Amino acid sequence: MIKQLISILSITLTMVFTTPVWAEDLTDVETIINQATLAAYYRGEDGRSEARMLIEDAQGRKQQRQFTILRRDHEDGGDQQFLVAFSRPADVRDTVFLVEKHAKTDDDRWLYLPGLDLVKRISAGDKRTSFVGSNYFYEDVSGRNPDEDNHQLIETTEEHYLVENTPKDANSVEFGRYQVWIEKISMLPVKIEYYDSSDKLYRRVEVLATEDVQGIPTVTKSRVSDLISGASTTMEFRFIRYDLGMESSVFTERSLRNPPRQWLKRPQPL
Amino acid sequence: MLQSTLMNLSMNRPKWVFIGVLLLTALAGFQIPSIQVDTDPENMLPHDNPARVFHDEVKQRFGLHDMIVVGVVNNSEQGVFNRESLSELKQLSDSIVHMEGVVSQDMMSLDRVDNISQEGPGTIRFEWMMKQVPQDQAGIDLIRESVERLPLLNNTLVSGDGEAAGIYIPITKKSESYRISGEIQAEIEKLSGNNQYYISGLPVAEDTFGVEMFIQMAISAPLAGLMIFILMWVFFRSFLLITAPMLVAMGSVIITMGLLIGQGYTVHIMSSMIPIFLMPIAVVDSVHILSEFADRYRPGDDPKKALSEVLTHLFTPMLFTSVTSAVGFASLAFTPIPPVQIFGLHVAFGIMLAFLLTIILVPAYIVSLSSKRMAQLQNHSIEEDDSSFLGRLLIFTGRFSIARAKTLLVVFTLIVVGSAYGVAQIQINDNPVRWFKPDHPLRVADRVMNHHFPGTYNAFLVLDKTGDLKNGLDQQLVFRASQAGVALQQTLTSVENESFTEYTNALINEFDQLSYDDTANEDLWLELLDLTEKAQVDSKYFLTPQAITYLDELQSYLDSSEYIGKSNGLPTLLKTVYRELQGGEAEYYRLPPSATAAAQTVLSFQGSHRPDDLWHMVTPDYRSTTLWLQLSSGDNQDMSQVLTLVDEYVKAHPLPEGVELNWAGLTYINVVWQDEMVNGMLNSLMGAFVMVLVMMMLLFRSVKIGLLSMLPLTVTILFIYGLIGLVGKDYDMPIAVLSALTLGLSVDFAIHFLERTRAIYRECGDWEQTVAEVYKGPSRAISRNAVVIAIGFTPLLFAPLVPYITVGFFLATIMAVSAAVTVMLLPAVMQLISNKDALFGVKPGLKEMHHD
Q1: Per-residue pLDDT at B268
Q2: Which among B603, B614, B622 is the top mutation candidate for probing chain A, defined by the most A β-carbons within 10 Å of its own β-carbon?
Q3: CA B814 to CA B712: how far, in whole Å?
Q4: Is the distance from CB of B551 to CB of B569 less than 8 angstroms?
Q5: Rounded-to-integer distance, Cα B608 and Cα B112, Å
Q6: What string of DSSP letters covers B433-482?
Q7: Is the separation of the CB atoms in A220 and A237 below 8 Å?
């Protein structure tokens, strides 16, 4: 009896102390956004994960894509390198995207198509195009530069910061505004809702699962829904590792034709 | 038996009859407000028609919608490529995209599509073609160049001459197109007017037709009623006399329409003509009763006695003419076109109802009249003077027919031969857009758009790769696993899925996971993974060079045909993206060399703003693909030519193994129902002919007279269709429907004519005298009825829609011709039959069938 009481008490205490109820709420929206950007896109110095994408169209037909993402940060909140290597479906295996993301200027993007033995530079142009036919945009994968929007903290709840974002250049994007729910505890953006120019909600990005990986809160499952057509894409991340010590040279054009197997292969369980 | 029951009822319980008919009419009348108009030509086919099922399924599979096409035309030197024109286009497109019922993500317009272009050496660029209208002419010219580089857009979004741009607006429901096109029109009126705008597309045509159909029903039907009223006034000059037939006509129309609507049937273009068909037919019998009653009744007599004499005398001929007419219409049930069947059966019902109402309502009406009014009736005898124009003409005709019998027969034979030749010339063709008059805005839009663009009519050529994929893979997997001592069946069953892609995806995930978890069998799982992946890649048939080369060659063959304005398909997309990946030079406008190259070309395309456009051309499993053909003509004839072209090509270049070719698209569906109708109509016609012939033989109890009675209508039908063939009028839906019902209507004349001729001959026994008699009374009655019916249909001539005009014109013509043929041909033929006693069955002691 006493044992039980103690265990209940300890559980309660654990809950009380692990929930940052006493943490000061952030009030500066720039700080919130910057922290959220870091939490979402700059975890660790580098990282790898295997993504499995399930694209479901309005009729319920499903297609699958599988790829490994390698990432290396030059500095937190600054320039980054990405390498996305496809493994499935088999007919696009070894197709590779290489991205040099620049915080201040346009990104550099390359594409390698093994079936055509062709390396192609992709013009920076618009980053709000589909990522390999899914409902994700390139920008959803690599992160939208916070400087492109004006932010306004519109609500702070028990668990979330709700931030309203309006584009500085309305002509560069397809949305009129979007709202982000940032989870206070992890500072991860967990829900984003996009409104079109006539202020109709048409697109939703949501986090479906997060996990603690090497002490870092990490999104392991998310979904983008096209609320107009009814299509959606779910992405699951597995075999996630941070701070692998990848060199900058992993992310060069050379890697397009010769993918860095060392980092692409699955890591041993921790 | 039935006859006397009805007569007793109507004469002894007139109030019951009135109340009963009134109640029935009211009950039916209450159904009418729930009317639902259906103008969808697709409904010409039953819902379960294979072509229609396939068409619907193709629309679903490829995410295709019915489309409204807005044409933006500027005839100035730069065409639409100037800032003002493009700004208006963008403004319009921006407002359309937010309209309810528009499939916004699939809308196609210059400002909503992607440009794939070269940005310096080795760099490919996906960007909106016209996110903003460029400020300078150089930017605008660049858009023009870009569009011209992209075969999927060129001549679809902007015409080759640069004078017209198109906004393609897919809509969720065809029945919304009238509303949406109205909203578009309202937006167009807000623009500053730098361009001309045209709204076209089959859905608009169909929906607009429905609205105009309502107008026509609200105007033409009452007008037809008024027309008949006036006509009868001219003949009888007595409202008292006319009231009864008008009541019968209104009762028949309201009850029939109420029945149709009450049963939940939609009112289709054919059914909307029911009132106009019924009214003239319904009044004819009442006129017979009234005029004979007026002849026989003398003031002071018991009206019931005169009435029952008249009814006894007229019952059988009226029943037979009603039944033959009803049979003619009911025979339309043999045509496998639901709206035509519903039309035919309901008009048949209406005719029999009109007969019943005539038998019970008219006597009830007469016995309810006060004796003063009854006396007035008598003053309005319909008997005309022999010296009237019609009278003299008929007497002359009679003499002429007898005197020149041989000549007449030769002339008629020649007409029949000529008609048969004409029938052979008949062009079977229809086009729902032509249901509008040439000056209708829709027809104008149709002309303008098809002048600038390769075509606004769509047909879809669908190729499906068939064959079982799953069993082969399962066997392979189970066999390989059993070699390693692993039972696999349960794993396979657990991920069972109808879609092979999804099934293999699940298997791949499963094997992938197992290779990781079950290290002992890692090699096996990786091998099974390979096998499954290979099977999945192989299943994507329409990425293989063999398949896309066949498609590509078929496409170039089609593009070279004058019937096809343009074709769009997977090869077009692959070649375009492949070219841009290879640096953009024209020489690289070709198919990717391998299936993986094709898959990766597709993957590159999917990095655009509109990756889903791909799924309008191929299904995600790459086992079905469709070529979108843009035709500049919606004529069924032209579509049939396209079908023949493809058939010939497939004969010369057999489809790859396991590939099936089928058609979808509204333009194709129109051809299908037309074919069904032409064949079905022939069945209807033959069916009606045989039935009416048998009835005639029974009625006259004579094979010879039975055959004779079919002669005028046979000649009439041949003549009318021969004429249609000779003047080159297309044999379309309304024309087709006419054949069977002509038969039912025009046999009436022969019945009356032969019945009276035989009766007179049996009385006097002299042919000369018979002819003279016949050309006084009966011929006049026939002519008058022909005029009533013919003129009753003339309001259709003022209808805003072409099919109504056609029906009106031809029915009037048919009535006139068949009446003329009856009074000229029948006596001439009988003149040449030497044994008239045998013909008319004159034997001592034989009881006559009818008296007059």
Answers
A1: 85
A2: B603
A3: 11
A4: yes
A5: 12
A6: GGGB-TTSHHHHHHHHHHHHSS-SEEEEEEEEE----HHHHHHHHHHHHH
A7: yes
Q: In B, which residues are within 8 Å of A95 by CB distance?
A: 600, 603
Calpha distance A261→A265 (Å, rounded): 6
Q: Note whether B536 contacts A89, CB cutoff 8 Å.
A: yes
Task: Report phi then psi at A239, rounded to 5.
Answer: 50, 50
Residue B384, Ramachandran bin (φ over 0: left; ψ between -120 and 50: alpha; else beta): beta
Find chain B residues with C-beta within 8 A of A167's C-beta: none
Sign of CA dihedral B332, B337, B340, B342: positive
Sequence-ordered list of residues with C-beta below 8 angstroms from that of A12, at least 6 positions apart, any chain:
none
The Cα–Cα gap between B155 and B473 comes to: 45
**pLDDT (0 to 100) of residue B847:** 41
Whether B564 contacts B623, CB under 8 Å: no
Residue at B649: amino acid letter: Y
Rounded to a whole number of angstroms, the CA Rg of chain A reads 20
Q: Is the four-CA dihedral B472, B474, B477, B478 of positive or negative sign?
A: negative
CA distances from B776 to A244, B99, B115, B181, B273 (A): 114, 69, 82, 59, 35
What whole-number distance in Å separates Cα of residue A236 and Cα of residue B62?
28
Quote the CA–CA distance of B491 and B507 in Å, as a whole number.
8
Dist CA A55 CA A131 (whole Å): 11
Which portions of chain B are predicted below pLDDT 70?
A: 1, 376-387, 740-741, 777, 843-852
Q: In chain A, count of helices (H) and strands (E)?
A: 5, 13
3-class secondary structure, B36: coil
ipTM, two decimals = 0.91
Strand-pair partners of B624: B464
How many whole angstroms separate alpha carbon B208 and alpha carbon B773?
Answer: 54
CB atoms within 10 A of CB B56: 14
- For every residue of B416-429, DSSP letters joined together read HHHHHHHHHT--B-
Of the spans A47-51, A100-104, A127-131, B834-838, which averages the highest pLDDT?
Answer: A47-51
Alpha helices in B582-665 (DSSP H): 595-605, 636-652
B330 to chain A, minimum CA–CA distance in Å? Answer: 43
Question: Are A123 and B127 inside 8 Å of each other by CB?
Answer: yes
For A88, name the nearest residue in chain B, comparing CA atoms only. Answer: B533
Q: Do residues B344 and B331 make contact, with C-beta atoms less than 8 angstroms apart?
A: yes
Please give the Cα distance from B74 to B85 (Å, whole number): 7
Which distant-in-sequence residues (6+ apart) come within 8 Å of B492 by Cβ?
Answer: B474, B477, B478, B507
Specify burial of residue B69 (Cβ count, 10 A radius: 0-12, 13-18, 19+): buried
Local structure of B72: helix, strand or coil: strand
Q: What are phi and psi of B237, to 5 degrees?
A: 45, 45
**Residues in contact with B809: Cβ distance below 8 Å, sequence separation at least 6, in sequence order:** B796, B797
3-class secondary-structure state, position B118: strand
H/E run at residue A209: strand A201-213
Residue entry with tokens 């298997």: B507
pTM of the model: 0.87
CB contact set of B472 (below 8 Å; sequence gap of 6+) = B535
Q: Which residue has the tokens 């014109």?
A: B809
Kindly list the residues from chain B whose CB atom is less than 8 angstroms away from the CB atom of residue A115.
Answer: 592, 594, 596-601
At residue A7, the pLDDT reads: 54
Element (H, E) at A163: strand A160-167
Residues in Cβ contact with B13 at an 8 Å cutoff, skipping those fewer than 6 apart: B364
Q: Which residues contact B852 (CB under 8 A, 6 or more apart)?
A: B313, B756, B759, B760, B777
Residues belonging to chain B: 852
Distance separating alpha carbons of residues B225 and B51, to the nearest angstrom = 40
Contacts of B597 in chain A (CB under 8 A): 113, 115-116
pLDDT of residue B11: 78
